[in-house]
Write a structure and sequence with these properties.
Blueprint: H1 4-26, H2 31-34, H3 42-55, H4 61-66, H5 72-75, H6 82-98, H7 103-120
The structure holds protoporphyrin IX containing FE.
Length: 139
């Protein structure tokens, strides 16, 4: 059985990472996580591409450049709860569509990508909505 990297190739993984951050820039539903990122997405696009390359069975580019594959640490400064994880996964699914990934590849990635997203999540509950009638306004 081929690895996702063998299916996509180096260029395909790069296209996926670019399509991912393009989706983050374009989709109104993911404004929340877009706001956590720098204005210029060039660096993080490259980092995601490097990370996914190794994760999908290709050369360990992220490990070689960053000295680790641990993603918990770089995500610590951000409050990532269930909605943020959903938004991230939405971008990932849009990116897979954009690069016309096969159903086989989508199926291969579906559970494993959800597992990393769950590992990166560092807040288990949703934030209380301002509009929630059970919240007593403090202002
Ligand atoms: C679960 C929801 C997630 C949120 C809200 C999120 C958000 C972020 C943010 C705000 C950054 C910093 C960007 C910047 O410097 O401008 C970042 C970096 C990064 N994210 Fe995520 N992320 C999530 C999940 C993931 C997942 C599942 C992966 C991998 C498959 C991933 C891979 C990366 C990588 C490789 C970096 C760069 C880390 C570094 O600085 O070395 N993220 N993410």
């Amino acid at each position: 059985m081929k690895t996702p990297y063998e299916i996509l190739g180096a260029e395909g993984v790069q296209q996926l990472a670019c399509a991912f951050y393009d989706a983050m820039d374009e989709l109104p539903e993911v404004r929340g996580i877009r706001a956590m990122h720098a204005q210029d997405l060039t660096d993080v696009k490259q980092k995601l591409s490097d990370y996914l390359t190794g994760w999908m069975g290709g050369p360990s580019l992220y490990q070689a450049k960053q000295g680790t594959v641990c993603l918990t640490e770089p995500h610590k400064p951000y409050s990532i709860g269930p909605e943020e994880t959903e938004q991230w996964l939405l971008c990932f699914n849009k990116a897979l569509e954009k690069i016309a990934a096969s159903d086989e590849l989508k199926q291969m990635l579906e559970q494993p990508i959800k597992r990393i997203a769950a590992a990166v999540q560092n807040r288990q509950h949703a934030l209380a909505s301002k509009d929630d009638p059970n919240i007593i306004a403090s202002c």
